[in-house]
Amino acid sequence: MNDARSSLARRGFLIATGATALTFSAACGSGATTPDAKNAAAGTPKAGGRLRAAFAGGGANETLDPHAANLFVDAARAKALFDKLADFGADLAAVPRLAERWEPNEALDTWRITLRKASFHDGNPVTAEDVLYSYRRIADPKGTFRAKASLEPIDLDASRAIDASTVEFQLKRPYAEFPNVLAAFGAYIVPKDATAFDKPIGSGPFTFVSFKPGSSLVVRRNDAYWEGAPHLDELEFVVASEESARVSALLGGQVEYAHELNPATARTHEGKGKIDIVRLAGSAMQGFVMKTDRPPFNDPRVRQAFFLITDRKELVDGALSGAGEVGNDLFGKGYQYYPAGLPQRIQDLDKARALLKEAGAEGLKVTLDTAPAATGFVEAAGIFKEQAAKAGVTVEVKVGNKDTYWKDILSSGTFASYRSGAMPIESHISQRLLTGSTTNATKWQQKDFDDLYQQAQSTRDVTQRGALYERMQRRLYDEGGFLIWGFADWIVATAPKVRGVSKAAPANTLDWARFDKIWLA
After folding, report:
1. 78 SS3 class
2. What is the pTM of this model?
3. Which of 109, 185, 119 is nearest to 427 (CA)?
4. Cα–Cα distance for residue pair 173/458, rounded to 1 Å
5. Each residue of 268-321: pLDDT tens digit?
6. What is the pLDDT of residues 210-220, one digit of tens each?
7. Cα dist. 173→19, 112, 177, 310, 418 in Å?
8. Whole-number CA gyration radius for the chain
9. Per-residue burial over 100-134, b = 16 or more CB atoms within 10 Å of its CB, e = otherwise
10. Which of 484, 486, 485, 483 is nearest to 306 (CA)?
């Protein structure tokens, strides 16, 4: 049994073997039984109290529509009010939530989902019709919901409700990793026919009280929650877009939880007794994208040279203040299917120069697009500029607009700073590395690579499927366009009286922002 499957077994999920190896059920019916949830903090949970959590916000146009979630604060608020069919565990394997069980047919192109007994805040049960309505709303061509791309493999016209608690999804093609779709960012279940979310009704652990866009959301404990009522009486999400404001509010007692601190700030306050620092390892991939469809990076020798120019430890120490670990030019370190046996790449300037000379790229000059759009971006660009100069490469750092950066670099430029949050390796490949991927920032378009991915999704046996993923990743390691130099910790801070905060869940996974599991000592 591989590590990911062992992890599922430890969480209490039944793992069948042989012909039904992709059948999962929640034996205990509760994600609260995960080791992380039980061991996040010592002591007996205490009921009651109000916790205030500070997040960066999205301004006066904020919405509580869970399908429109884009920011971390959107995801945290949606998690408080709504549920998905599945979510990602700490190892980025899908674990059941509203789905109690999933089972594919032999061809892996039909999946039957059995729902657990759960109710919306108005007392109505969560049914198969609610699931189909939610997914069809997300996939509506007239909409712009983020989970739309994740739901693309589903033929929603052909999918149907077998009965009130059973959904049968017909897929457009075999998809062995279909549970990743159920756990996709933003794929929340809402009541059928819901269109307005000014006073949202979900099935989550908290119920709506009040909302001021760009300012505050107040929610209250849902005593009827299927997984058990939260410990807190109330939870308030407070918007504080500047990190300094979040930290000041925490130090001043105006909030008890501050999301997203930079490494330097965390180091300043860690161990001083006034606030507690929680580091969520492996939360964010850090690197650069080289566009493989245009000069100079359409020559794989140039890409290989840039891999060898990079001093990864210097980048982690300098750009992340040491709050992370070095990367190896592949996404998902520590996740299911990650090829940990590949040699760790180290700086080799002599070999880099030889490759550039062989490619006719001596004296190369490139522009590196960056922006203060994520922690360490501008700093990493400056460090890499100095590293590249040692190999005879001139890097011009161009600092752009942080608000439009991600859109700007998707198709324009040749070389750019890049970051990604946690997601399964399969999702990273399907969303960013296939010819038709909508966020293919490296412009990696290789038919044989696409074919390997499709072969993996038609392969029921997890070991054989893992071997196909390894072949794909070895190819990327040798000649891909992602230069992945590190994996950053995600950092949150709390008041000393806060208990139950996960210390092992990457951002955007099940146990991240689990305010229903937090209590005040």
Report:
1. helix
2. 0.84
3. 185
4. 8
5. 999 999 999 999 988 999 999 999 999 999 999 999 999 999 999 999 999 999
6. 999 999 999 99
7. 19, 15, 12, 40, 31
8. 23
9. bbbebeeebbbbebbbbebebbeeeebbbebbbbb
10. 483
